[in-house]
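Q: I'm a student working through a structural biology exercise. My instructor gave each of us a protein and asked us to get a predicted structure, then write a short paragraph describing it. Mine is VOC family protein. I'm not confident about reading structure output yet, so if you can add a plain explanation after the tokens, that would really help. Here is the sequence I was given:
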Amino acid sequence: MKLHEPVTGGPCWAELGTTDLEAAKRFYTKLFGWYPETDPRQQAGGYTIARIDGAAVAALTPLYQQGQPVAWNVSFAVRDADAAVRQVTAAGGAALQGPTDVFDAGRFAVAADPTGALFQLWQGRSFPGAGLFNAPGSLGWVELLTREPDRAADFYTTVFGWSVGASDRYPQWGIDGADFGGMVTMDEKFPHEVPAHWLPYFAVADVNTVAVDTTDGGGTVLMEPTSVPDGPRIAVLRDPQGAMFGVYRAGDER
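A: Happy to help. First, here is the predicted structure for VOC family protein. I'll explain a few features afterward.
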């Protein structure tokens, strides 16, 4: 993506909720070269920040609520989490959790858009979000998969002021001319039980190698490594606990 640091309205963090934190640490450490650091405070509930060369790139956490799905969650930066929640509900979305203070790090909330896709809002204080983007092992793109693209476009442009590309094949989200994500319309090829969702893509040096390492580590390749015409080489994967994520070759233009 064309963002290189957290900016208001843009993706600033990716967070995995998983049933097996220790297994997830091992899997992603091998896959991306992450160094996981678990917050020792009891109140943190096992919250683990993954780092590359000291820079925070993502988080891994236990599931905190009954019924919470195993999934990667994308956070978007906001100036005021409380005001952002009001904007979400006014635009037809729903507030599911918070806003809540997280120590002195910031204030967050969990929300859903009108098509059912969950996302998080993050008002950074001492922690603005990821310290590295677009480099191998770090977040480099976010993608909304939805069955109602027009409704989704209306919602996100209203709440965050995003631009949305006119392409019917793959509209792209942007802030001030900097694209950071895209939107896929879910058709009959997607199982009915798969809800609308946000999918983070992590940059990697070699997509094929990461796909092999995923299966070797007990995960699944959902979309084989593919070169997008006039775009990057990508794959969509699933970790051993069931969370989906994408990868793309670092250095390819998104």
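A: Here are two points you could use in your paragraph. The helical segments are 21-32, 81-90, 149-160, 207-216. Residues 21-32 form the longest helix (12 residues). It's a good idea to check both against the output above yourself.
Q: Great, thank you!
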